[in-house]
Amino acid sequence: MKAFRLSGRFRMARDWTPFSKEVAAKDEAAAREKVMSLLGSHHGVARKYITIAKVEEVPKDEIEDQAVRYALEAKA
User: Fold this and answer.
1) Comparing C-alpha atoms, which of 7, 60, 65 is closest to residue 32?
2) If we measure between CA atoms, which residue out of 67, 45, 49, 68 comes closest to residue 58?
């Protein structure tokens, strides 16, 4: 598994809200799917209102989210 940081924006009410999220996934496609799922379930946003602008792989020493760090260490 790898750590990815995704950023973009999603529509909340009438405004577009920026986001940046770190997730642990096996590849970029899985990371995109995970973020779409998380934003949809937490904020009730339809996928057509989520725009992912940037996906970057994050080295293990630069991971900010503790849950992602733990997930990667548990799989190692």
Assistant:
1) 7
2) 68
- Beta bridge partners of residue 35, listed in sequence order: none
Task: Give me the CATH number covering residue 13.
Answer: 3.10.20.10
Q: Going by C-beta distance under 8 Å and a sequence separation of 6 or more, which residues neighbour residue 45?
A: 10, 11, 12, 39
pLDDT in tens, 18-71: 999 999 999 999 999 999 999 999 999 999 999 999 999 999 999 999 999 999
Indicate the helix (H) or strand (E) that contains 53.
strand 50-58
Q: How much is the average pLDDT of 12-21?
A: 95
CB distance 72 to 3 below 8 Å: yes
Domain that holds residue 71: 2-75
The total domain count for the chain is 1
pTM of the complete model: 0.91
